[in-house]
Amino acid sequence: MTASLAVTVVGSSGSFPGPHSPASCYLVESRIDGVSTKVVLDLGNGSLGPLQSYTSPTDLDAILVTHLHADHFMDLCGLYVMRRYDPRRAPDGPQVVHAPEGLARRLQLAYYGCEEPAMATQLDTRVVRDGQVIEVGSLRIVPARVVHPIEAYGYRFESPAGTIAFTGDTDTCPALGPLLAGADVVLADAAFLEDRDEARGIHLTARRAAQAALDAGGVGRLVLTHIPPWNDPEDCRAEAAELWPEVEVARPGDRYVVGG
Ligand SMILES: [Zn+2]
Ligand SMILES: [Zn+2]
């Protein structure tokens, strides 16, 4: 058997798009003996454009949304249009989207300004629950409730090739231990910096992201992401490197491959 698991960073900008990156979006691909499973994690502002250079957005096996902040889901409005009105081809059935409760209504209000059930013809939203495993093709996906001002999840993607984990937007919390443990690649929120951002319960600092990887017993590669345009990414890297010298910073187009 040949197996590989890969993540492509489509957008790594935190809170809103930057000049060089869309907001949150990652393409996760599992391949087993040539059979591919494609999942997109988050479809934040600006991400639907570059996503088209990596894959057809109407050809995904599932979409997962970490939480209902606009920088993580707002381009689902564009995907709705793409699916419903592209004259070249009509997709088979609606796209399954796993998300916290309330996504369908939020999208209807954003797009139509009122509740409009027609959106369900294209987007089949399903509610995510803490620890409730989602099976998609060759991927086993575990949602973990994390700490953020609204209901938010990190996700762990497991395949026969290995494991990739995303913290989603979160501060330090007990869920990060099992979420990150033994992962080959971890993409961690690092929006905050130690000496600048004192608020708690919102984001990890770069240092706290590195600490979470250490507390989980170590991980393969630690990659910082969700870095807002007002941060210098080098400041984030340097802060985390005090605890995790090999730490990396996600940029659009970066691809991390496990196995294969
Ligand atoms: Zn965010
Ligand atoms: Zn958020």
Q: Could you characterize what this model shows?
A:
The chain is an alpha/beta fold. It has a single domain, classed as 4-Layer Sandwich (Metallo-beta-lactamase, Chain A). The protein is built from seven helices and 14 strands. It has helices spanning 48-51, 70-73, 76-85, 103-112, 176-180, 206-215, 233-241, and strands at 3-11, 25-32, 35-41, 62-64, 95-99, 123-127, 134-136, 139-146, 152-159, 162-166, 185-189, 221-225, 248-249, 255-259. The strands form two sheets. Strands 6-5-4-3-2-1-14 form a seven-stranded mixed β-sheet, with no helix packed on it. A seven-stranded mixed β-sheet has the order 7-8-9-10-11-12-13. Strand 8 and strand 9 (152-159) form a beta hairpin. Helix 6 runs parallel beside helix 7 (233-241). It is globular and about 55 Å long. The N and C termini lie close together (10 Å). The mean pLDDT is 97. The chain binds zinc ion (ZN) (2 copies).
Short description:
With about 260 residues, the protein is of the alpha/beta class.
Number of beta strands: 14
What's the alpha carbon Rg, rounded to whole Å?
A: 17 Å
Distance from first to last alpha carbon: 10 Å
Helix content: 10-25%
**Number of helical regions:** 7
* Inertia-based shape: globular
The biggest beta sheet, please?
7 strands, mixed
Enumerate the distinct ligands.
zinc ion
Q: Which percent range describes the beta-strand content?
A: 25-35%
At the fourth CATH level, what is the homologous superfamily? Ribonuclease Z/Hydroxyacylglutathione hydrolase-like
Name the quaternary structure. single chain
